Task: structure prediction
Amino acid sequence: QLQLVESGGGLVQPGGSLRLSCARSGFTYGIGWFRQAPGKEREGVSCISRSGGSTNYADSVKGRFTISRDNANNTVYLQMNSLKPEDTAVYYCAARTRPWVLGCTTTPGHYADWGQGTQVTVSS
Result:
């Protein structure tokens, strides 16, 4: 089982930025970022394939969030800019352990291993 560790969460004012990191052990075909706010279902935020050639974003974060990866350091990043109060949630990264058929997806059921999450709070 892969180990995934998220970091970089915190409290930020609206309009601010945070960069989340997902450090992983072992080989993956891709990494997805997800979030879950209190009382809501877990939703996909972004994903990236192993090569970085395939990325995907939820409509709610397009133009504000950027996913990237550093395979040499086994780390995937989620740069979050122009944060809004509705971005407040626990953010999780997850590993895809089978090859993608048509690019990465942000469907939680397509991922096998999950981190423990990091809290992001956007508030003034």
Remarks:
- The longest strand covers residues 89-96.
